[in-house]
Design goal:
CATH superfamily of chain A: ACP-like
Largest interface: A-B, 28 and 31 residues
CATH class of one domain in chain B: Alpha Beta
Number of strands of chain A: 0
CATH class of chain A: Mainly Alpha
Strand content of chain A: under 5%
CATH topology of chain A: Non-ribosomal Peptide Synthetase Peptidyl Carrier Protein, Chain A
Shape of chain A: globular
Distance between the termini of chain A: 7 Å
CATH superfamily of one domain in chain B: ANL, C-terminal domain
Number of helices of chain A: 3
Radius of gyration of chain A: 12 Å
Distance between the termini of chain B: 44 Å
CATH topology of one domain in chain B: GMP Synthetase, Chain A, domain 3
CATH architecture of one domain in chain B: 2-Layer Sandwich
Strand content of chain B: 25-35%
Oligomer: heterodimer
Chain lengths: 82, 525
């Protein structure tokens, strides 16, 4: 299922707001420096992204992800493979 | 009670029962697999492993998420007469290189010949180095002729290796024999069933979301259900973390009587479950809500009861327990038919961890007439030792007594824990070496090299991370950048960051940090 970057970003924002009550993020928002996500929030975020986009990340796929922009990129790649 | 002397015998006996395991699916349903099917599948994997060259006593790492695939892999290894080495799974978003480095040392310390992984982490674990590499149980060649039963193993043979806290360079690989492992399972089942003698209407039905590489998940939940045997429902830790209500819904749906979790899970339920998620949920079957693996605090238990009693939760079900991987798992259980007990100690309220399980003894090693001291444990499931770490083994195992590293006192036969082993940081039920957090801060601007102490403090919510950091002229955003680095590298955001002048942390004459003293000096305990 192809989705453009802007709609993916919008959906990522929606997942963050709905499940972690985090608002006002942009592509440049840093997951650790700005949001200080702990491992429970990180796991919740990944699982809910997978639920929302109906995708499955392999362990290690999310490694190196630092910003919301990186998340959008990773989701986009997975959607492209589906 | 259980007669099986080894894990293969346990599975064989369970296969003759009508019971099995329900696996929770993401969509909300369950998939059921009977122990007879699980046994048959494991026999196929065992044959394939032998074909691959795995021999009796070989160590095979199992790094498989909660699924039928876990049973295939773990019991395939067991029925082949080999020894499963239970490997932690990587943290999502976590730094992969650190994970691979730590895993590599674990594999080498245990002399692992082969790694069994899940479909989603096979690629990652292929980057580790073992003689026979990394495979998924489902990919092993089939049709090589399945033997009719598992390998005959002695009850004194090594049954399982599980990891306790330890540094990346020196992991603590806890080695347990079949006899030791089953002695702990038997003691726990004795506590479950013994509390409700005939006519008490107690039937063991378990629900667990605990990671299966954690002793509380593997030994406390999976193996106790298998050994009895009794019905078990499993869900992945991810499902619970993302939607904590799924845990309570599962307890209700399966009419579970026993379900265990570290203390943080009870807090997480309070914070994250919305009332509308609990429509129709009935927790009255839950007789033992075992709570352990980290400090248990009374306010959380009280709040948990107040909130969920409207769904049938019994107050006496909240059962604080104490145990550690080095003891197989469980050491003490509080009385599951009575409200949890508390005592005041130096102005703090301490929750009783209960009495030793049958066959176990605890004693306090203290100076003079001091009633508080180091908690020592003796019993039939105390580990053989740490693999590849004789010095450390000799340090903690003296004359059959295990030095837990924790401090406490005994009152009316019940154990009260007053202080934690400062050589580990216990967070969310997991044991971590302080070095994990201390090293993560190396190289950060303003942080003095070798000038960090990581420890934990007990808050109402449970144990939380605190770092004491020596810093020369700290920048205004020093605390924020320390938090950010810990969040990224370890997944834990510190509850407090204490900035200190260079040289303020207490050290030994040889310059080694004295964590216990530092915690006392700067955190008032």
């Amino acid at each position: 299922m192809a989705m453009d970057r802007a709609s993916i970003l919008q959906d990522v924002q929606q997942v963050l707001e709905e499940h972690l009550t985090i608002k006002d993020v942009a592509e440049t928002t840093h997951l650790f420096r700005d949001l200080e996500l702990d491992s429970i929030q990180q796991l919740t975020f990944v699982v809910e992204l997978e639920n929302h986009f109906k995708i499955c990340f392999d362990e290690g796929d999310e490694s190196g992800i630092q910003t919301i922009g990186d998340v959008v990129e990773a989701v986009s790649q997975r959607l492209g493979e589906a | 009670m259980i007669e099986a002397r080894t894990l293969p015998e346990c599975l064989e006996q369970a296969a003759r029962s009508r019971f099995g395991v329900h696996f929770a699916e993401r969509s909300g349903g369950d998939a059921f697999h009977g122990y007879s099917e699980i046994y048959e599948r494991a026999l196929v994997v065992a044959s394939a492993l032998r074909e691959l060259g795995i021999e009796q006593g070989d160590r095979v790492a199992v790094a498989v998420p909660t699924s039928l695939d876990f049973y295939d892999s773990f019991f395939g290894v067991v029925l082949a007469g080999a020894v499963p080495v239970s490997l932690p799974l990587p943290r999502r978003f976590g730094p992969v290189d650190d994970y691979l480095c730590a895993t590599g040392v674990m594999l080498s310390v245990c002399g692992v010949r082969l790694v069994l992984a899940g479909e989603r982490n096979r690629k990652l674990l292929s980057r580790t180095d073992t003689e026979l590499g990394t495979v998924c149980a489902s990919e092993l060649p089939r049709g090589v002729g399945t033997s009719a039963r598992g390998a005959a193993v002695s009850s004194d043979a090594l049954a399982l290796v599980q990891f306790s806290s330890g540094t990346t360079q020196a992991p603590k690989a806890v080695a347990l024999t079949h006899a030791q492992l089953l002695a702990n399972v038997r003691a726990m089942l004795g506590a479950f069933l013994g509390s409700y003698p005939e006519g008490g209407g107690f039937e063991h039905r378990g629900v667990s979301w605990l990671p299966l590489y954690h002793d509380m998940g593997l030994v406390g939940s999976l193996l106790t259900a298998l050994a009895l045997p009794s019905p078990m429902a499993l869900m992945s830790p991810e499902l619970f973390i993302a939607r904590p209500a799924r845990w309570l819904q599962a307890i209700s749906r399966h009419r579970a009587s026993v379900s265990a979790a570290p203390h943080f899970a009870y807090s997480l339920c309070l914070d994250r479950i919305r009332d509308e998620e609990l429509d129709g949920v009935d927790l009255s079957s839950w007789r033992m809500a075992l709570d352990g693996a980290e400090a248990v605090t009374a306010p959380t238990l009280e709040r948990f009861y107040e909130r969920f009693r409207h769904y049938g939760l019994r107050e006496e079900a909240l059962t604080p327990v104490y145990g550690l991987a080095e003891a197989g798992l469980a050491v003490t259980f509080s009385d599951p038919k009575r409200r949890f007990r508390v005592e005041c100690f130096e102005g703090r309220t301490i929750v009783s961890a209960g009495k030793p399980l049958r066959g176990f003894e605890i004693r306090i090693a203290s100076h003079g007439t001091n009633r508080v001291g180091r908690v020592l444990v003796r019993g039939p499931s105390i580990m053989q030792g740490y693999l590849g770490a004789e010095v450390e083994t000799r340090r903690v195992l003296v004359d059959g007594w295990l030095d837990t590293g924790d401090d406490g006192f005994i009152d009316d036969g019940e154990l009260f824990l007053t202080g934690r082993d400062r050589d580990k940081v216990v967070l969310r039920g997991g044991n971590y070496a302080p070095e994990l957090f201390e090293h993560a801060l190396e190289g950060i601007a303003g942080v003095r090299a070798g000038g960090v102490v990581a420890t934990s403090v007990v808050t109402d919510a449970g144990e939380e991370l605190v770092v004491l950091v020596e810093s020369r002229s700290p920048k205004p955003d020093a605390v924020k950048s320390i938090s950010a680095v810990l969040s990224e590298k370890t997944g834990f955001v510190p509850h407090r960051v204490v900035l200190l002048d260079p040289g303020a942390l207490p050290r030994t004459s040889s310059g080694k940090l004295r964590r216990e003293e530092a915690a006392r000096q700067f955190l008032g305990r």
